[in-house]
Every structure is written in C-alpha cells, then in structure tokens.
Specification:
It is a single chain. The model has no long low-confidence stretch (mean pLDDT 80). The protein is 74% helix and 1% strand. A two-stranded parallel ribbon has the order 1-2. The chain has two domains: 180 residues, no CATH class; 120 residues, Heat Shock Protein 90 (2-Layer Sandwich). It has 315 residues and is an all-alpha fold. Helix 5 packs antiparallel against helix 6. The protein is built from eleven helices and two strands, in the order ααααααααααβαβ.
C-alpha cells in the first residue's frame, strides 16, 4: 500500500496516469463463506436426524478446523508448500470420505469443499491428476450412498477444484507481475540517480578545476597585463555559463557527450594551466556512443592533469 501511495504522488507530480489501487491481497477469509455448504449437515445434527450425533459432531468440527487451517495457509507460498499443509489436506480427504460414506445426504457436499481446498493448495501438473482422482472418488461415494441423483456432487467437486486453482493462480500471477514492475521501476530510479550523480560529478569536477586555473591565471596576469587578465575572466564567464547549460541538460537527461567539444575544452583548460596541449586526430568517425565514452575519458584525464600532475605538456 505504501508503494501504491508513492506511485500516486509521483503520478500527480508528473501529470501521468494514476495507478490503479491493487487493493489488499486475498486471504483465507475469501474462502470461509463456502463453509455454509455444510449447514445442511449441521442442521441435521441439531435436529437429531443424524445417527451417532457425537461422532458426526466431532467429524464436522474436525473437517471445519482442517478446512480453515488449510485455506488460510494456501495464500502464503511458503506455508502452502509446507508438508504440514499437505498432511492436513490429506486428513481432510479422509474425514470427508468417512463422513460421506457414513451419513450420505447433505454430508456429500463436503466433497466440493474438499475440492476447493485442494485447488487452493495445489499447483502445477499434479493438480490435474489429483483433481480428476478426487472427482472420481466423489462420484463413486455419491453413487454408493445416493445413486445417480447425487452424481452432480462429482461435477461440483471438479468445478470447485479447477476454478479455485485457476482464480488463485491468476491472482498470484498478477501480484508477481506487479512486484516485477515495481522492481523494474526501482532499478530505473536507481539507474537514473547514478547517471545524474556521475554526470554532476564529472561536470562540476572538470568545470570547477578550469575556473580555479583560469582565476589563478587572471590573478597573476592582472598586475602586468590587464587585457590578458580580462580574457581569462571572460573565459571564466563562458565556462560558468556552459556549466549551467550542461547541468540543466544533466538534470533532464538530455546531455550528449562530444569528443570534439571535450578536446576543445581540454586545449583551453590545459593552456590556462600553463600546460602545452598536443592533440592528434586520426581514424574513421566514431559512433555517438564511443564519442560520449571517449569524451568522458578526456574530461576526467584533463581534470586530473590540471589538479594533480604538475605537468608542462599533455599529449
């Protein structure tokens, strides 16, 4: 939910499309209302229409407890795949068979509930095999207890198993896709942050070094050659304006590196630092990507020469 609110704030600032509220993830509460299918058996118990009511009551309590345990664990992947969940589902199957064979009638409708729990827990190819086996078991037990009139219980068992599995699998796929999208968005933000940090470091490091060198040159020249000092000051203004333009471009992400431009700036910066620049150009034209890369190399190299080397010639 916090991620969704952050996405909404970002969309408002950018004027983009507002993200849809994903809502809370489903839980076992979504499957609890289906327990009402067992109200017929519960009503028979209360009215004394069930033989051995204590056994029937214990069986009903056991089935409901296992159903609640299994369905709530079905919505957490680690819990769903745990052995204890599979054991509870198997016990639920045994209790269902015992109650359906022992009492028949409305107790047969525990088979669709068993199918629902099975569809909530199982995934993959095994689901189809177990679902068909469970459907066949429901058909046989229903036929034994109530004849052909109760075979629709098998149909309900098959539907509850497959439809539940399909809906929950789709829900999980949507959640995984949303998580993947959020991860991609997070990585894109990190990538943009790194790009901006790198560009800002390169621009400010190089530009400030040039400004410092030209300021020192202007200070040295001012007492004996005012025109030359003014030229250096003009260069400082030009470098500052260019830096402002490049910083704006870096912020918007449209700054393109140019090797020719960086070489021209390198000549100017090295000359201002009393370093003799020697530039030789040869070979075929470079691609924009290679130009940007080599321009960055030239900028960093010149910055280091001006700051740290004390050299008189740079080639």
């Amino acid at each position: 939910m916090e991620r969704f609110k952050a996405e909404q704030r970002a969309a408002r600032r950018s004027g983009g499309k507002m993200p849809e509220d994903p809502g809370p993830p489903p839980t076992g509460f979504a499957l609890l209302p289906w327990l009402l299918m067992g109200m017929g058996a519960f009503s028979n118990l209360l009215q004394g229409k069930t033989a051995n009511p204590w056994i029937g009551g214990l069986g009903l309590f056991t089935f409901n407890s296992l159903y609640i345990y299994v369905t709530f664990r079905a919505f957490v992947k680690e819990a769903r795949e745990a052995r204890s969940t599979k054991v509870a589902l198997a016990l639920m199957g045994l209790v269902t068979c015992a109650l359906a064979l022992g009492y028949g009638g409305s107790w047969l409708y525990f088979f669709p509930l068993l199918g629902l729990a099975t569809g909530a827990v199982l995934r993959g190819p095994r689901l189809g095999q177990i679902g068909l086996g469970l459907t066949a078991l429901a058909a046989v037990v229903s036929f034994v207890r109530a004849g052909w009139d109760a075979v629709n219980v098998a149909y309900g068992t098959f539907l509850s198993t497959m439809v539940t599995a399909a809906i929950l699998s789709l829900s999980e796929a949507v959640r995984e896709l949303r998580a993947a999208r959020e991860e991609l968005a997070r990585r894109a933000v990190e990538k943009e942050r790194l790009r901006f940090s790198r560009d800002l470091h390169d621009l400010l490091g190089h530009t400030l070094s040039v400004i410092v060198v030209k300021s020192e040159a202007a200070r040295r020249l001012a007492p004996r050659d005012l025109d030359a000092a003014l030229t250096q000051i003009t260069d400082i203004e030009s470098v500052g304006r260019q830096a402002l333009t490049e910083i704006r471009e870096a912020v918007t992400g449209y700054r393109e590196g140019s090797l020719t431009t960086e070489l021209d700036r390198a000549r100017s910066a090295l000359s201002a630092a009393s370093v003799d620049p020697v530039v030789r150009q040869s070979g075929a034209p470079l691609t924009p990507q290679n130009e940007a890369l080599l321009g960055w190399v030239v900028r960093e190299a010149v910055t280091n020469v001006v700051r740290h080397s004390g050299a008189t010639r740079c080639e």
